[in-house]
Amino acid sequence: MATVIRIHENGGPDVMRVEQVDVGEPGPGEVRIRQTHCGVNYIDTYHRSGLYPVALPSGLGLEGLGVVEARGPGVTELEEGDRVCYATGPIGGYASARLITAEKLIRLPEDIRDDQIGGHMLRAMTVQYLLHRTYPVKKGDVVLFHAAAGGLGQIAVQWLKHLGAVVIGTVGSDEKAEVARKLGADHVINYSTENFVTRVKEITDGKGVPVVYDGVGKATWEGSLDCLGLRGLMVSFGNASGNVDPFAPGILAAKGSLFLTRPTLASYTSTRADLVETATGVFQAIGSGAVQMGQAVEYPLADAVQAHKDLEARKIVGSTVLKP
Predict the structure, then answer these.
(1) Strands 30-40 and 166-171
(2) Contact 87, 321 (CB under 8 A)
(3) Residues 6 or more apart from 89 whose CB is under 8 A from it?
(4) At a CB cut-off of 8 Å and minimum separation 6, what does 193 contact?
């Protein structure tokens, strides 16, 4: 039997239930993995709340790490005992064991420890595609990255500095500002006490930045547009503060012929080749020392409710993982 977290209705953290299920044997193209790390990401709260609808009842979680216990017919790339991870679903990662399609799994390199990637993979893969494909960051680019001390932001700041960018990071507290500075952010703006648009314009001598990476959403949307320079790119990749309100496309013209994209990790890893390329980029960044993963905040799997409460209350600095 496996311990899993499931929801039977949408709502707040308390709708999550701890259940025992019989995982069974893997079918064609599947493997069964015994999980040691279940990653917790903000998108999980959207699935739980109903912001991103899922068929109910449902598990939660898109990310996990563990060991292959059994493989079904047709699986040739993986062996029993292989350490593997995934970060693009399918949903159901909050589990001590699960069945999953082998094509979704990435074998971990021998030089990457479990704790270096467990709970970090979805965020790290997101950063990889954002900085290398959504907007290929070049040396000398001045970049605005919101929530620079969050689990994803900490990875992004390090990676941006490795690429030679000038990093402007926003945070919500003095404590988080210190985290962003230690990671290498050139300019840190506490948006709870400062106007981040005014500060960005001061830093850039009124020119604005060529790209804004915004995973916050509603609270920073309008200000983010105002931080962009002529023909700048707004990368809106999350809704931590809520959905952006509908807007007239003409606002992009009025603010300087701006570009807008709303990317997702699923779109950038839709083929096996893209998935492997993205994961390989993450492993290379960690292996080279360009990006160092901080210690994830750990909760027992059965305490998923508390993990979600702390995540939504902005109490967690860095990544979060559930341990079966």
Answers:
(1) unpaired
(2) no
(3) 62, 104, 266
(4) none
Q: In the chain, how many domains are there?
A: 2
Residue 299, classed as helix, strand or coil, is strand
Instruction: Give me the phi and psi of 60, to 5 degrees please.
Output: -135, 160
Residue 78's CATH number = 3.90.180.10
The tokens of 37 are what? 């790390």
Residue 114's contacts (CB-CB under 8 Å, 6 or more residues apart) are 36, 37, 65, 83, 108
Summarised one tens digit per residue, pLDDT across range 4-55 is 999 999 999 999 999 999 999 999 999 999 999 999 998 999 999 999 999 9
- How far apart CA 21 and CA 95 sit, in angstroms, is 10
* Angstrom distance (rounded) from CA 235 to CA 132: 13
Helix (H) or strand (E) segment spanning residue 230 = strand 228-236
pLDDT tens digit string along 51-110? Answer: 999 999 999 999 999 999 999 999 999 999 999 999 998 999 999 999 999 999 999 999
Query: Are residues 187 and 98 part of one domain?
Result: no
**How open is the CA angle 307-55-262, to the nearest 5 degrees?**
70
pLDDT at site 46 = 92
* Residues 164, 241 within the same domain: yes
Residue 275 covered by a domain: no
If residue 141 lies in a helix (H) or strand (E), which one and from where to where?
none
Measured in degrees and rounded to the nearest 5, phi and psi for residue 107 equal -75, 135
Strands 297-300 and 320-323: parallel
Amino acid code (one letter) for 20:
Q
Between CA 158 and CA 127 the distance in angstroms is 10
* Domain interval for residue 80: 2-120+293-323
Rounded to an integer, what distance in angstroms lies between the CA atom of residue 167 and that of residue 309? 30
Could you tell me if 16 and 308 are in contact, meaning their C-beta atoms sit under 8 angstroms apart?
Answer: yes
Rounded-to-5 percentages of helix, strand, coil across the chain: 35, 25, 40
